[in-house]
Amino acid sequence: TARSFLRCLVQGYFSIEVDGAERIPKESGVIIASNHPSVLDGILLLALSPRPVRFLVAEDFYNHPLLNPLFKSFGCIEVYRTKTHNGDALRAAIAALKQGAVVGIFPEGTTHFGGTLPTIKQGVALLALRTGVPVICLAIHGSMAAFPPQAKFPHPVPIRLSFGAPLSYPRATC
Fold first, then answer.
1. CB atoms inside a 10 Å sphere around CB 157
2. pLDDT tops 70 at residue 32
3. Which end of the chain is more exposed for a tag (fewer CB within 10 A), N or C?
């Protein structure tokens, strides 16, 4: 119900185009790895994916008083920015993937507004090799124009989500 409401809200406010969503497997575990130009990206992925997505969320956003109930209701996985707790998020993501969930991850590790790609974190590779599930790349276009860093509210501009073909990696036993 929350996902349907969120989808209607997003599609009613923005001009949305979604390509390739049919490439997401209907039942098995899969990783969706996406660029992250805006704080709006996770909401777009939650609302517009054909399957529920459990995405990894940085602790400062996850614990935001207004967003926390939404993230919890969607089964999002909290990522701590300290090295002592990051293993918890990876273990939770691996367990979710093994149970057949869709796990969304932003390999940049944070929202990136700069126009150039920052150093990519290794979480996607680690999850893919540990579980053997496919990875689907997602390109989000327009979310930064819709909700730039200094904006208080999103602007109703066109947004496009393009899902790529699944990429498979052999499961590593290490």
1. 13
2. yes
3. C
